[in-house]
Design a protein that fits this description.
Layout lengths: L1 H5 L1 H21 L6 E5 L6 H8 L7 H11 L12 E7 L5 H6 L1
Antiparallel strand pairs: 1-2
Helix pairs in contact: 3-4
């Protein structure tokens, strides 16, 4: 009993680190492989993609743009015709009329 009493703080710390590790692994395993990818066309902009898809992604427009920039390594909002970018929505989430256009 004295072992548990002497090392109780250390044991609690070990348990917390273990649980935190499991949570971190579970969260990091959620990747973007199920998200759709689209090719940027002439005249496309991040703002245009955000206006079209942010509601489907359940994100405010500015957060949608931030996500696009971070996940697609886009700097200064510059995208180019022919570039492929990932959108934070799955094929199942696309509205029918948009899914046929892709």
């Amino acid at each position: 009993m004295s072992f548990v009493k002497n090392y109780s703080y250390g044991l609690v710390l070990i348990v917390i680190v273990f649980i935190s590790s499991i949570i971190l692994i579970a969260v990091s395993s959620c990747d973007t492989k199920d998200y759709i990818q689209i090719e940027v066309g002439e005249g496309d902009t991040l703002w245009g993609f955000a206006e079209k898809y942010s509601e489907v992604a359940k994100m405010p427009t500015n957060k949608f743009i931030e996500w696009l920039e971070e996940e697609n390594q886009i700097y200064n909002g510059l995208i180019y015709e022919g570039q492929t970018i990932t959108l934070p929505i799955s094929q199942e989430e696309l509205p029918v009329d948009v899914a046929f256009m892709e």
